[in-house]
Design brief:
By secondary structure, this protein is an alpha+beta fold. The protein has a single domain, classed as PknH-like extracellular domain (Protein Transport Mog1p, Chain A). It has four helices and ten strands; from the N terminus they run ααβββββαβββββα. The strands form two sheets. An eight-stranded antiparallel sheet has the order 1-4-5-10-9-8-7-6. A hairpin with a 2-residue loop joins β8 and β9. α2 crosses α4. It is globular.
């Protein structure tokens, strides 16, 4: 098997509009791409973050990281995917650090909004890839995040909904689409 370049791994893992639409079983789904760029505005370039802007990947390698962010609005719910292709770090190590950071993260502030971790969640992480997840309440909504890693690639997916059940349902949709893409990478 031919090794993939960082650019090829990035492209292989990015969820397409079609792949996301295939995971959405709700009839009358209105899917619109809202953002497509190299990094999330207000977050450090080339760094995987958890609990706001806390780095869970190497900041010294950040300039060599291939990264991309996509966001969609689906029936009024915001879904995002961040992909980081790491030059030296193992994805499993970064996801483990994200899990540890999330576990110790009771709250954080982002762009003037206060986020508080929910007491529990019912997010089922996929088996074939490493994962971590948490949900936070913010301004009357719930924002859920999941971190998945394989073959030097970490993808972070998130959803925001009016309540935790809704946010978790939407997170499961984008997480499944991202998992299918990650599974195609050679281990």
């Amino acid at each position: 098997m031919v090794a993939l370049t960082p650019a090829q791994r990035l492209t292989a893992v990015l969820v397409t509009d079609e792949a996301l639409a295939a995971e959405l079983t709700t009839s009358g789904t209105d899917l619109e791409r809202a953002y497509d760029g190299e990094r999330a505005p207000g977050f450090p370039a080339g760094t995987v973050t958890a609990c706001g802007t806390r780095a869970v990947s190497s900041t010294k390698d950040a300039k060599q990281v291939r990264a991309h962010v996509r966001a969609w609005v689906v029936n009024g719910v915001v879904l995002t995917q961040e992909v980081h292709v790491l030059p030296r770090q193992r994805a499993e190590d970064v996801v483990a650090k994200a899990a540890s950071t999330l576990k110790g993260c009771a709250s954080y502030a982002d762009h003037g909004d206060g986020y508080r971790r929910t007491a529990s969640n019912k997010i089922k992480l996929p088996e074939p890839v490493r994962g971590a997840a948490a949900c936070f309440t913010v301004a009357g909504s719930v924002n859920c995040h999941a971190y998945l890693g394989r073959a030097g690639v970490v993808t972070t997916v998130s959803s925001m909904g009016p309540d935790q059940k809704t946010a978790e349902w939407w997170l499961d949709r984008i997480m499944t689409a991202a998992e299918h893409r990650l599974e195609k990478l050679p281990a």
